[in-house]
Fold this protein.
Amino acid sequence: MALSKLEKRIRIKRRVRGKISGSSELPRLSVYKSNKEIYAQLIDDKDGKTLVSASSREKGVDAKGTKTEVSAAVGKAIAAKAIAAGIEAIVFDRNGFVYHGRVKALADGAREGGLKF
């Protein structure tokens, strides 16, 4: 029987997470997208803590325009918060989502904001 869309994403997510991990020096930028919103957080997997987070639901994020434009704004917001926290380099975790559209826009926004990955 064929896997559902969610089951495929979770299978991809497990495979990717077996290869990457975040630390306090090189945290993992995890992305989650729902139908309306997009969320990003920098995670230290060794301590199990979220260092910085940003989403399209926050008041500081300019949530005007298309969902792709909002995703780019979230990427810039997380980059600004990360740099304020002293983080410059990260590991990108697309969380099983295809690196296309909103996920790519968030990554490009984070790069424009000054994060290196």
